[in-house]
Automatic annotation (TrEMBL):
Residues 45-133, 229-308 form the Ig-like domain. PANTHER family: BUTYROPHILIN SUBFAMILY 2 MEMBER A2-LIKE-RELATED, T-LYMPHOCYTE ACTIVATION ANTIGEN. The lineage of its organism: Eukaryota, Metazoa, Chordata, Craniata, Vertebrata. SMART domains: IG. Keywords: Cell membrane, Disulfide bond, Glycoprotein, Immunoglobulin domain, Membrane, Receptor, Signal, Transmembrane, Transmembrane helix. Residues 1-27 form the signal peptide. Pfam families: V-set. One of its GO terms (cellular component) is external side of plasma membrane. Its main location: membrane. This is Ig-like domain-containing protein.
Length: 408
């Protein structure tokens, strides 16, 4: 009896092992697949099996909850934005299509396929990403540089740097993150300007978490003091290794923005908006020199000139404040006036004695004519009597003091 009992147990475990082997043969586990869906775009979750013409049944689960089933060419979906490629099922394709994927689409999905020959099971790990679509950088009135990006998922990383790099001082910024109703993040970072260096370029880099997508924005502020009426060149150089860029020049005055020109490096075309005012050297532009050439600068040209280079995931801005050197102009005008005044004074000092002499002679001649004397005869007599002493004069011409008393 005991031997019979042992024999029955052996048979039981043997049959159980065979059953497990059959089950393991009939059910195949496919390695997990990892899919990153792009926000608001369609996304395909893969699930494939050996082609079968009949008896194909499969289900899709999300977090162990049934969301889709397919049976005998009929499908049932829990959500309207979920479907499969019905025509592809007979070819071994049971992939699931997520239409207009959202942040709520992320999670773990499972595909289970039953055929007359086997059972296939696969897991799909879904991530959803809203890539960085743009980056902005600018100066706010409180003398801070601000960098931002919106509509990003998951929360990105932001980093500040400067060019040239400041070895002893690292940029200290305040960064804020917020999410909207669609769970998309906005990141805004504010950095206080460093007044120690006027020619300092501020660089903001924003990097996504999943795809390591990186955007870069940089800003440089400069000033120029010029004299109106002259030609002016406002420098602007493109960052290195930037291709297929677009260059725009804009003029800002009294909160009014005016487009000057746009340059497209891919087509080497320049479009001018500010007629006969600003020009670009096309040859230099091909080398990355986007300097603006202005002719006959006037008072209306005083303001801020903005040069913007835009390329693939990069933007570089140079803001140049152009001011008129009023103080120097006034100083030069005062100096010119002083020089003219001194010259006039010198001329007057030289001419005054001559004028006085001419007036004196004119008055004397008039007086002589008044008494009936000939001015020419008087002049001759003066010349004749010039070398005679008092003793040589006739008696009638002697002074009264030289007569003796006896002569009286």
């Amino acid at each position: 009896m005991q031997l019979l009992s042992i024999s029955k147990k052996s048979v039981f475990f043997t049959l159980f092992g065979i059953f497990l082997m059959i089950q393991s043969h009939r059910q195949s586990k496919i390695p997990d697949a990892h899919v990153t869906c792009i926000y608001s775009e369609d996304c395909i979750l893969p699930c494939t099996f050996p082609p079968s013409l009949e008896g194909v049944v499969f289900q899709w689960y999300k977090q162990e909850t049934l969301i889709f089933s397919f049976l005998e060419d009929k499908d049932e979906s829990v959500h309207s934005d979920i479907s499969v490629f019905t025509d592809e099922v007979s070819h071994g394709n049971a992939s699931l299509l997520l239409e207009d994927s959202s942040i709520r689409s992320r999670g773990q999905y499972k595909c289970v396929v039953n055929t007359t020959k086997s059972v296939w099971e696969s897991n799909v790990i879904v991530k959803v990403e809203a890539p960085i679509s743009g980056i902005t950088i600018g100066v706010i009135p409180t003398q801070h540089v601000q960098c931002s990006s919106h509509g990003v998922y998951p929360a990105p990383l932001l980093k500040w740097s400067t060019d040239p790099s400041l070895a002893r001082t690292s940029p200290q910024a305040v960064t804020r993150m917020s999410a909207d109703s669609n769970d998309l993040f906005s990141i805004v970072s504010t950095l206080k300007k460093m007044s120690t260096n006027l020619n300092l370029t501020y660089i903001c880099s924003i990097t996504s978490k999943y795809s390591l997508q990186s955007w870069r924005a940089s800003l440089l502020q400069t000033e120029m003091t010029v004299h109106f009426g002259q030609h002016l060149v406002i420098p602007c150089m493109a960052p290195k290794n930037i291709k297929n860029l677009t260059l725009t020049w804009t003029f800002i005055s009294m909160n009014t923005h005016t487009d000057i020109l746009t340059y497209y490096s891919e087509t080497q075309r320049i479009q001018y908006y500010w007629a006969d005012q600003g020009e670009l050297d096309l040859y230099k532009a091909l080398m990355g020199d986007g300097s603006l050439y202005l002719k006959y600068l006037g008072s209306k040209h005083s303001g801020t000139y903005v040069c913007t280079f835009t390329g693939f995931q990069v933007i570089h801005i140079v803001q140049t404040l152009v001011k008129n050197n009023v103080a120097k102009a006034i100083s030069q005008a005062d100096s010119s006036g002083f020089k003219l005044w001194m010259a006039a004074l010198i001329v007057a000092a030289v001419a005054l004695p001559c004028v006085i002499y001419c007036i004196y002679n004119k008055c004397k001649v008039s007086q002589l004519k008044h008494y009936g004397q000939d001015p020419q005869q008087d002049t001759e007599m003066q010349a004749m009597h010039k070398d005679n002493s008092v003793e040589d004069l006739p008696t009638e011409n002697k002074p009264l003091a030289e007569y003796n008393n006896e002569d009286l």
